[in-house]
Amino acid sequence: MMAALLLRRDKKSTAAHLKSDLNRTDNSSGVRQLQELLDSVLNPEKPPADTEALDWCKCLIAGEEGFEEFCKTVRSYDNATLCGLVWTANFVAYRCRTCGISPCMSLCAECFNNGDHTGHDFNMFRSQAGGACDCGDSNVMRETGFCRRHRLRTGENVPSVPRDLLLMSEMVLPRFIICIIQYLRDGYTEPDTSAERDLQKVLQQLEPQITFLEELTKMGGAMRTVLTKILTNQQTFKDLSMGQEENVFAKKNYENYLSALKNSGLVSVEEKAQTGAAEPTRGSETGALGLLGAAAPSSSESNKEEDQDGQSIGQRKRVKLSSSTKDPSIMDSLKHKCFLEELLFWTIKYEFPQKMVTFLLNMLPDQDYKITFTKTFVQHYAFIMKTLMKSQESDTMSNRIVHISVQLFSNEDLARHVTEECQLLDIMVTVLLYMMESCLIKSELQDEENSRHVVVNCSEALLKNNTYWPLVSDFINILSHQSVAKKFLEDHSLLMLWMSFVSFFQGMNLNKRELSEHVEFESQTYYAAFAAELEACAQPMWGLLTHCKVKETQEYTKTVVRYCLETLQIWFDAIGFVDELAPNQVTFHLPLHRYYAMFLSKAVKCQGLDLESLLPDQEMLMRIMVHPLQIQASLSEIHSNMWVRNGLQIKGQAMTYVQSHFCNSMIDPDIFLLQVCASRLDPDYFISSVFERFKVVDLLTMASVHQNTALDGEQERPMLEGALTFLVILSSLRIHLGMADDEILRAEMVSQLCMNDRTHSSLLDLIPENPNPKSGIVPGSCSFEEMLSAVADFKAPVFELGGSMQQGMYTPKAEVWEKEFDPIMVILRTVYRRDVQSAMDRYSAFLKQSGMHTTGNPWPPYKERTPLHPCYKGLDRLLHCKTLHIVIFTLLYKIWLDHSNMSEHVLCMVLYLIELGLDNQVEEDKGDEEPCIEEHCHDSWFPGTNLLSNLHHVINYVRVRVPETAPEVKREREPPASTSAEASNFGQNSRRLTGNWRENVREAQVFSLVAERRRKFQEIINRSSTEASQAVRPKSSSTRWVPPGTPPQLVTEILEIHESMLSLLIKLHQKLSAKQNSLSATWLEDMDANPNRHAHGDGITAIERILTKAATRSHQSKRSIQEICGKVFPPVAPKKNSPTAKKTMDKEERRQRARERQQKLLAEFASRQKSFMETAMDVESPDTEAAMDLGASEVKESEVLYDCVICGQSGPSTEDRPTGLVVLLQASSVLGHRCKSDEAKKLPTTDEERIYPVDTCGAAHDVRLALMQSFFKDSSCLQSVSIGWDGGVYVQTCGHTLHIDCHKSYMESLRNDQVMQGFSVDKGEFTCPLCRQFANSVLPCRPGRSTEVVSWHMPSNKKTSVLVKEVEDLQEQLGFFPTESNLSKEMELVIKDIKNTTQRKYMDYGKNPGSPDNDFLFMYSVARTNLELELVHRGGNLCSGGASGAAKRSCLNQLFHVLAMHMRLYSIDSAYNPWTRLTQVAPSRDNCLDDERPEVPMLFRDCPSLLIIFVLTMPQPLRKEHFICLVRMLYNLQYTQALAALSAKFSLEERQAWSTSGTLKKNAFNAEKSYEALLSHVITELSKVKTVYDVNTDEPSMLSSSVWSPQSIEYSLQQFCLPYLRLSCLLQHHLYGDNLSGCPEEEEFSGLAGCLGLLDPAPQPSNPMYSASCLDWTVSAFDLMSQWCSEVTGLADTQAEKSMTLLVQDLQWASPHLLHLPDNYNTIFQYYHKKACTACKKVPKDPALCLVCGTFVCLKGLCCKQHGICECVWHSQHCGAATGIFLLINASVIIIIRGHRFCLWGSVYLDAHGEEDRDLRRGKPLFLCVERYRVLEQQWVSHTFDHINKRWGPHYNGL
Ligand SMILES: [Zn+2]
Ligand SMILES: [Zn+2]
Ligand SMILES: [Zn+2]
Ligand SMILES: [Zn+2]
Ligand SMILES: [Zn+2]
Ligand SMILES: [Zn+2]
Ligand SMILES: [Zn+2]
Ligand SMILES: [Zn+2]
Questions:
Q1: Ligand nearest to the CA of 1746
Q2: Which of 833, 1515, 1555, 1739 sits most deeply, having the most CB atoms within 10 A of its CB?
Q3: pLDDT on residue 539
Q4: Residue 1189 CA to ligand 4 centre (angstroms)
């Protein structure tokens, strides 16, 4: 009842009252009152949506001050030294590798920008799983990287918190939290119990409460301390969690909680103890975690247990290994002792709601909390993973889990702490095992029936969806801490457990070769398998290896190696492997092998361990080599198309296996392991195994014919090449056999660069991570960057004209090509076969260019190898074994004889092996070698094993087994009919052989590698007594070599050879050089003189190099070579032997040649295309054909002929069949965006900066027109200005012409061809049939024309006054309407097109929309727009000149014609014809007495516009004399306007002074051409009404500060008239084809005036005042001027006030610019990526920025969509008349919008390596590429976006 009383009172005063009660010494009554109040307020039975309870809590906590105020106060006591800012997905954060201790370190933008990271290796990134700022945490990052704020250890300066501030919080919050917990308990239902389970709904209702908790955490350290105390207090939890006895709800609620615990498969400890389960309790103070420590069984025991389990469950498809877990209690015990634990429990149950996660993470800066929370998290770890596995939304949940765990486990202290106290490692490994056990299946490897091995099933969701990654990433994270890794490596039972985990992946995703039919569906499980091995096995392995780098950690390595071998042994037993591999199977997954290999490598390389001590016996080694070797053979099979029936995915596997992210963890360890085996096993055995695995043993016979049952004919050659290449790799690769880390990095880099030029980022991606991490500095080794600059040159990004943008590239240095190019390394690292060819092509190009080898194709260069580490010396024995020498001998022999299936590649590899052998001699230890010789059946081939001595050993006879049908046999049976010399030779030899073969039998040997291998294998097995029984089993494979039922029986034949390897080499030299005796007897001596000439070259060079090496190393070889060379060989070139064999031999070469030819053709085609494009694009091209040369006066023909690019015919354009120009019409606002200042406007990057659009050309013209329209007659206004500054229509052409009817059928065909994309035919769009330029209309050409040219140019001697009259008469002529014809129809059509090009609002400026006045204005403005744009393109003036030829590419002449035709429809009312007012002094017409507004005074009219109006409305063609007359008369007006404007700039005194001085000259000679007299007159006239100049007095006197001199006056007048002169001149140029003569900029005025005939071409040096001398008056200048001035002064007062504004206009505009961008992209990004849109007030998801005007828009946002058009497109229509250039803030990329299409243009920001970073994926600093930006601007100004070579697509208004 007390509570009820309190409830009724005001919350604030209640709070104050309670607080004071509680502060008393006896606070019992206060406590009671509060409890009662809370009992009724915080009632969990009330719906949580009722926020009354929340309001009460806020008030109680805050006390008498408001909650806001309270927050502020608490915050002032914040003592946190960490930032701890928590963010969720998509937040932009930073990572600095230089400052980070943990690789997971991250910083918020504020902390990053306030810290000093200059020169550091940092990047920006978009958070995927969410994270928190580590600033201030010295466990995670170095203190040097802390920001200013968190470096300051603020904690020390903060006063301690007053006791009573947080008193209420301490009392209220526990109740508040238990209330939340009760809601959570109440709302939870198990997934399977209820159909309408809606956890989201529960969470939604709780949102305000949880948000409140989050708010509390943001109040800083003081509040967090209070919260921590509450959350971790066990007593409070005990008191509150069960609720009061009598409360039924609380009881039920608690039971709900217990059942949730139970239903999760988790039992509370108490209950478990009651049911009698034995609990090994240790360290009960840690609660449930104490249960984990059960002593692990000794390793051998656990082995056996596991084996038996595997056996018993091996039968089932999906198996469960429940007892393999180390301690079952890890998986199912939980007990909660405080709020935090239960809160986390519910957080997990509710699958990590974001708000809860953020709350829990926000608390982390509190150290006590962090420790407790980490422990709690670990305690729940197993439960978390169980929940994850069951979750429907495992992706979201994974992210949230990692969001938390990264914060906890990145901290080494904390990780070590929980490892020691809570057995984190045991938990993790156990949970991993538990997880994988859920998806095990029986392995089908080897013995499908009896296998006892189990593997993970890669098609299970757990693997396919990567559900295990949070767990694995946590595991890798904690293993990165040395102290934790040590714990792991010291714990043998953990290691055993781990190895059994790894063995789950051993042999997974088994491939079986399909032999008959193609697989029905291609399984895509392989990627899951590769990902699983890499993430779950390899990554932890690399983590562990980083801690096994020094001698001190030898023991760890030894242990791991021991357990690896044990587990491998178990595995071999489980799969039932003895010595023979089941056929046609391969698995790429051998993680156990790879663990063993990598620890072995580290042991030898870094820890100085003796290899011998870590190796198993020979038999085990033989077994270990089998599976990795099978992978190598299978790779070759896959590339030889033997696995095609398994689908494309098998190639995917082969490629993934060698790919840069996998090679370190897969192929490299495999090759290394094989190298270890090869170095220890018998080399003969090893070599024979290789050839057997590659199935090419049959091929290694010296007979001309052989059978091969294992391979199809076309597979033999590639398989043989594969086997030899593998042997070369095996014996030459040194990655783990002696190369230092720097050397490896260098070799990797060189091989990647040799394949292709690479960008920095792709190179970074292609270089394997191990042993050198790609970034970060490893002490004592070269950094990536240093190494890169040592081997590569940087090629800066070049911009190609076509619009394709290149990136900065790295290319190998010349000396790298010369000395370091290693084809073997390239082969090892190529994913795509074409990359090998690419490397070779680039190598040959280099040799050609440097002149080192110019003829033919060079062979891969031989490269000397890093010396072998002594431990692996045995590897060289591979090169010095008889078996290999026999193979080499056989192959040399077969190549020489052109046997089938031999290739250049085979020879190349054979030579490589010989050379490797010569360079890597083994010390002969005779004692070991000699006794064996007698045992081997092929001993008689070679006397010893040394290659050097075997080289010159002559083999006389060889016994071969051949089919009866073989040529050898046939010849023997029937004496040959002497067909050819060789044949008879051979026959004789054979016959001689058969006679005495018995004598030679001991020399001839059957060469069967398989028999040999098997015999030796058995021998070794026999030696080991244990396996004796197995070894004697019958040989299953012996039948393989004599297939039953094959018709031709094998017979034994003996061949006479009489060759040594040396002699064969010399013969091959002759064969390759196609010369007999190519090596003279003395060539060896010549060789010594120049030992270096052999480094690069072809096969001949290689043979010479080998012979030289043999000769220098052995006298016997030298003698032998000299002897052979000395012999004169019979003139038999063996290659003539069989033309078919020759074919196969040269196949490769011919293919190469064909490719070269094709490439040459393509290159030629491309260059032709390019040169065409260049001439087509080049505006100033001087020598294009004369077809378009309309203006050239030299053309005497009567008619101009046009080529139609469609039908190819040439002819004139006629009324009936008109020809047209291919044109592109587009609306443009480029002119309107010009400003006064030549400097581009700066893009704002702070709130203070802003862009004002009012000073642009477009805005200024709008204002002027509006001003006029408010005073003057509308129709008159519309003739006094031009429009089209914004949204004007620009017409451009590629210069190609076509018949208009041809064009129509062309469009029809395009319409039917739906494949054509990128433009829309319905809108009239097409590409020029010839040059493929984008176009959308055809501009008809006027017929005839050239006949008039002459008359047009006739010099005119008429007086000006006559001409003026003639012009007047012409204007009076009625409009001549052409008769209706095809031409006139087309002309009207193109006018329609022009109107449709721009928007309505850019055409209707008049007061009556749709009136002819509007149309009139629009039409002549089209001409104006095109002339003005041409001026802009010419750089703003005409100083650069240009021949008449330049007019060709322009269509202005044709455009004028079409416009003029259209304009004839209008006639100017003669009463208002400005010509009269321009040329006559008429009595002032006072007929404007009616209410009509006055006409625009002449002084306000725009002269260029008038000129265009006159030209277009007069009868065509207009004679040049009349044109000049127009120009002259208008110049008078323009000059008067200039005087008026100038006079306005004067101060009052100056005006008076100039007025007076001028009056004196009025009567002088030539006064009408004296600026002083005229100026004075204008001043006088305008001064007649005060108001005109009065307006000016308000203006700041700044203008008058300059003193006007005659020079400055002349300059000012010229500047004012220049725009008019330029336009007139340009017009004259287009109409009459006059040349534009170039001139220096300061002489532009006189130049143009001369060109127009206003001024005598020879300038008068006596009078530099040109501007006045250009005047030409037909009536009294003073009278005319008076008349013009009176028009102004006669205006009503209000109008006159604005007169000055209209008089003083600045006609000069700077060239258009895009906004000036900051150099560093970050400046833009930081300001704009979180800026709110001004329209929708939200931060857009995809913000974009208009680079023309700086407007910020929501790209694609529905928020700002209007009329179905998204904001970006909308803006492009209004800002650029449908052209938009936008910078996408989050991608750093620019998109162009053009009409209904758009394209990605690329980026103008590049990183330090000249690369774009689209979508900011790498997050490296980006800088403005000025060249690119200039190109962008230039494309905008020149309207060439449509022509750049980009992928255009429709945007459907959705951008
Ligand atoms: Zn921060
Ligand atoms: Zn900071
Ligand atoms: Zn840094
Ligand atoms: Zn045609
Ligand atoms: Zn064209
Ligand atoms: Zn804009
Ligand atoms: Zn917007
Ligand atoms: Zn918006």
A1: 6
A2: 1555
A3: 92
A4: 20
